[in-house]
Amino acid sequence: MIQEATFGAGCFWCIEACFKDFEGVIEVYPGYAGGLTENPSYESICSGTTGHAEVARVIFDDSNVSFDELLEVFWFVHDPTQLNRQGNDIGTQYRSVVFYHSDFQKERVKFFIQKLTEENVWENPIVTECIPLTNFYRAENYHHNYFELNPQNSYCQAVVRPKVEKFKKVFSEKLKLSN
User: Fold this and answer.
1) Which domains does the chain have, with CATH numbers?
2) What pairs with residue 50 in β-bridges?
3) Residues that are catalytic
């Protein structure tokens, strides 16, 4: 069955680039969620005043990939212990958050947070938010497939590319055959 998941893990260029290559993922697109501003722009998001997070909406076939497997990618592609930031990207728009679409997703996120905390996977506490999806706005077209279309961009070279390469190495057996 076709399902949706919405993840905030810092810059949406990074998470989109990783999730789109994962087996069972049909589509990934960047957007904004969780704030009060209607139809926000990238510029307003960057101001940190909208309340929105940069997110990736993941459309997936749960007969080919489970929500738990998507959560594994989510935990891997960012540091869930950094409050309102990822590396040098600072602000609430870069927070670690799962906007759940169902009670099942909520339960799985809470389960993973507890499990990863008990296993002391990270030195610092997990600060990932688990909140219901109340709104979502697609990002402007130029953000879609940004890494693929702009591989020479300095941010892509310094931040996105190393993250995607590490992701592909760790999850090589779960990548789409075209990769």
Assistant:
1) 2-169 (3.30.1060.10)
2) none
3) 11
* pTM of the shown model: 0.95
- Say how many Å lie between the first and final Cα of the chain, rounded: 24
Enumerate the β-bridge partners of residue 176.
none
Please name the helix (run of DSSP H) or strand (run of DSSP E) that holds residue 67, with its range, or none: helix 67-76
E strands, 23-143, in order? 25-33, 53-61, 85-86, 89-90, 96-100, 129-132, 136-138
Give residue-wise pLDDT tens across range 78-136: 999 999 999 889 999 999 999 999 999 999 999 999 999 999 999 999 999 999 999 99
Tell me which amino acid residue 164 is: V
Three-state secondary-structure class, residue 122: coil
State how far the Cα of 41 lies from the Cα of 107, in Å rounded to an integer: 32
Structure-block tokens of residue 176: 């789409």
